[in-house]
Amino acid sequence: MRRDRRALAGVTGRVVGLGGLAGLVLTVVVFLVAWPLFTRMRNQRVWYHYLEDPYLHDSTDLAQLALCALPLFLLLLGIGSAAIQGACSRAVAGEAPRGDSPARLRPVLAVYVLRGLVVWPLPVIVAVVADRFTGYHLDTPLPLERGTWPYLLVKYSPLAALFAAVLLRLALTLAPAAAAAGLGARAALRRSWSLTSTRVGAALVVALAVPLVVLTAGLLRLVTQVALPLRPLVRGVLEDATGNFFAAYYAGILAPVIVGILVTAAVAVPLSCTAFAALHNHLDRRDAPSGR
What we know:
Blueprint: H1 2-33, H2 35-50, H3 60-92, H4 102-119, H5 121-134, H6 149-155, H7 157-171, H8 175-180, H9 185-196, H10 199-226, H11 230-242, H12 245-291
């Protein structure tokens, strides 16, 4: 048992370490790609200062670049989570944790993709539609008059869609553990739905998910606050090295956030994967005599 725990800790430690290093490298690459934007901001700031006019920089291009890079970060997170999920599921099943081949990671990665496509399009689409009909960018109250019941229903419909997405996400929580146990992606989603659609399954998933969410959010907040002194340090070092205030400014903002994400992932991801793998095994064995 101790040997299995040490092996699991070794596997998860290597995955978290390599994932964190890859995430840092990817962040540096994104900053290098964005460097012309930072340079343009710096030049505009110098020009406006020469004209003795105030300069308010527009971060729209940076936000668009960050959105373009987001799938790469999600892919990196998915690969690391899939590897940790496989190791944790085998440890819970009594097998020795070991490194996974790409073929063994593929079903878990497919589950992450399919689950995301099932859960999150609804709140995004509803939010876009609601903003189109009730957003403050509209010059007139048309097509919906402000203060009316239709206006209020459309305005707050994203909250209802988000609530439905959270419930659906909870129902599919055990899908990665089911995929790591040997099921295909679609079969794992169906298996998670069947296990969590019962009273016992739903209660256990909620009872396990809520403390994990609270722990993750609290740890992220705590570590980020502790790492806040990195902000002026990184900003000063990078500005002295490059002479670009805007690159140093955004790097300083991201530094404590990156530390918080890395520390939180190192603690929360293995814990969550192990907990949900154990819950999946428990519900699977409980359901086996009557369900299969």
